[in-house]
Amino acid sequence: MGCIVSCRFHHAADHNGILFLLQSPRYDAPALYAHLQAFLADMMFLHLGYAVLRRAVDAQGIVNAGAGPATGG
Fold first, then answer.
1. Helix (H/G/I), strand (E/B), else coil: 64
2. pLDDT-derived band of residue 68, with 50, 70 and 90 as boundaries?
3. What is the pLDDT confidence band of residue 15, given thresholds at 50, 70 and 90?
4. 21-53 burial, b for 16+ CB within 10 Å, e for fewer?
5. How many angstroms separate the Cα of 23 from the Cα of each of 7, 33, 40?
6. What residues contact residue 60 under an 8 Å CB cut-off, 6+ apart?
7. In whole angstroms, how far apart are CA 27 and each of 3, 18, 36, 66, 68?
8. Global pTM?
9. For residue 48, is pLDDT > 80?
C-alpha cells in the first residue's frame, strides 16, 4: 500500500496517542485514511473478541491455559 508506513506512541499538547505516518505513490490522502480506518476497525474487533474470550475464561476460574482451575484464597 505505501512506501512509508510508521506507527508509534506520541505525546502532543498534553495528550497521549498513537501517531500513524503513511505515504503512498498509488493512494491519495482520503484513500490512505480509509485504509487506516479499516485497519483500526479490524484491530478493535480483534481486541473486543479477545475481551469476550478473556471474560469467558475468567468466569470459568482459569488462571492460565496450563495451570488448571484457579483455587480460592
1. coil
2. very low
3. confident
4. ebeeeeeeeeebeeeeeeeeeeeeeeeeeeeee
5. 12, 11, 17
6. 69
7. 11, 22, 12, 46, 50
8. 0.55
9. no
Higher pLDDT, 55 or 71: 55
d(CA 53, CA 47): 10
Yes or no: say if 40 and 17 are a contact pair by the CB < 8 Å rule: no
Number of C-beta neighbours around residue 3 at 10 A? 9
Instruction: Measure the CA–CA gap between 32 and 39, rounded to whole angstroms.
Output: 10
Max Cα distance, the chain (Å): 60
Q: How many Å apart are CA 42 and CA 31, to the nearest integer?
A: 17
